[in-house]
Design a protein that fits this description.
single chain, alpha/beta, 6-stranded mixed β-sheet, 3 helices, 9 strands, globular
């Protein structure tokens, strides 16, 4: 069934129900991984802007699974006003290093595309001396990785050639707030990846 907010040149890749099941499954796995190691709480660091929806929703699900979550945000940009990454991420908003020093940290972003931003985030957070650091993405764009970066958890693997939107991901600066599904612009649409 088509989503009422999807235009003719767009398609739904992950429905609301599939998205919710993905978050529930990921939260159970992540919580179990930490709790079985004796870790009762983590600092969840969301990467703005795209990772805000995933970070908030995942944080809620992790707490429902018995893990205490301290939610923080950083902003890293590599796209600017372009539809193509500059491959040179820049820190736009930082957190205090003491917020994660000696703590178990889960970095959360919306999408793994080329890998430049996530590698930058991993290096940046490691400099703040966490006890442990893992990364999660809502979606991995299959076949687009140019930089090898270890992603510990990926909720969905999607077509790397499609421009994704919804669930924090945007198209032309819009559609981030469409939090309940993941869509893509069809081949004949205006935006496309790579």
């Amino acid at each position: 069934m088509a989503h009422e907010r999807v235009l003719e040149n767009e398609e739904v890749l992950v429905t609301s129900e599939e998205r919710n099941r993905g978050f529930e499954k990921a939260a159970k796995i992540i919580s179990a991984d930490y709790l079985k190691s004796g870790v009762k709480g983590i600092v969840l660091v969301g990467v703005l802007n795209g990772g805000v929806v995933t970070a908030v929703h995942l944080g809620e699900k992790l707490e429902q699974n018995g893990l205490d979550v301290d939610l923080r945000f950083i902003a890293v940009g590599s796209y600017g006003n372009s539809k193509k990454s500059s491959r040179k991420p820049q820190l736009l908003l930082a957190i205090e290093p003491n917020a994660i020093k000696g703590k178990h940290v889960l970095g959360v972003d919306d999408v793994q595309d080329g890998g430049y931003t996530l590698e930058y985030v991993r290096c940046l957070l490691n400099l703040m001396d966490p006890e442990s650091l893992k990364l999660l993405v809502l979606a991995t764009k299959e076949g687009n990785q140019e930089v090898s970066v270890k992603i510990d958890y990926s909720i969905f693997t999607l077509d790397g050639k499609k421009w994704l939107f919804g669930s924090g991901m945007d198209k032309d600066g819009k559609s981030r707030r469409l939090a309940d599904f993941i869509g893509a612009v069809k081949e004949n649409g205006q935006l496309h990846s790579s």
